[in-house]
Amino acid sequence: MNTRDGHPEQLLPWYANETLSPEEKADVEQHLAQCEQCRNEVALLKRLREQVQKEEIPSPGEFGFKRLQRAVNQEQRVHSVPPAWWRPALAAAVVVILVQSALLVNLWPGPKPMTPLGVDHDGAVLQITFTPDSTIAQIQKLLERIQGTIIDGPGAIGVYRVRLAMDPVDEREIDRIVTRLRQERQIVTHVSKE
Ligand SMILES: [Zn+2]
Fold it and tell me: What is the 3-state secondary structure (H, E, C) of 45-102?
């Protein structure tokens, strides 16, 4: 199983989604039986999912990461600071939810940066649009590989803001990541530095 620190964090969104294979599901359930941390996360993911499903037809303006972020921020006030494993799994869940809503498909027409270059930004942030054909698993893997977390999106034209785990910011490394992403033509249609 794909684990970090022994937690099947990458599988939890799929578990909450009920799309795991029977084998994976059994593995996760075995872990959940003995891990309260992961049980709590599954509960959170399921709540997020229900909340999204209750919505009627999503419109790009109201639907999306912002609202989920609000829901998540409320969670954070109730429970303390989330542990480090929490963010990537949540980002994955957000991608799952957005892809299910076909927003990636609907919002993709073409690339354009959301904010002009040089505007004050939070660390190393890339603006990425994904191809309509890219799968959740592909996006998830890509984000893992660049150690990226979706912090915002999709914008009106399908742009996601992805923060790279990088401290201090290393411009040359960012350039290398951008170059690598531009080669992922099956998944990424556009990538730019913020
Ligand atoms: Zn666990």
Answer: HHHHHHHHHHCCCCCCCCCCHHHHHHHHHHHHHHCCCCCCCHHHHHHHHHHHHHHHCC
- Comparing 7-21, 50-64, 128-142, the range with the smallest average pLDDT is 50-64
Task: Compute the mean pLDDT over every residue in the chain, rounded to the nearest whole number.
Answer: 71
Query: Which residue has tokens 């969104």?
Result: 13
Whether the model clears a pTM of 0.90, i.e. scores above it, the answer is: no
The class (CATH top level) of 106-193 is: alpha beta
Going through the chain in order, the beta strands assigned E by DSSP cover: 125-130, 148-152, 160-164, 188-193
> Cα(21) to centroid of ligand 1, in Å?
19
Instruction: Tell me the residues surrounding ligand 1 (ion) with CB < 5 Å.
Output: 7, 35, 37-38
Domain spans in the chain, listed from the N-terminal domain onward: 12-101, 106-193
Q: Which residue has the tokens 């989604």?
A: 17
Distance (Å) from CA 41 to ligand 1 centroid: 9
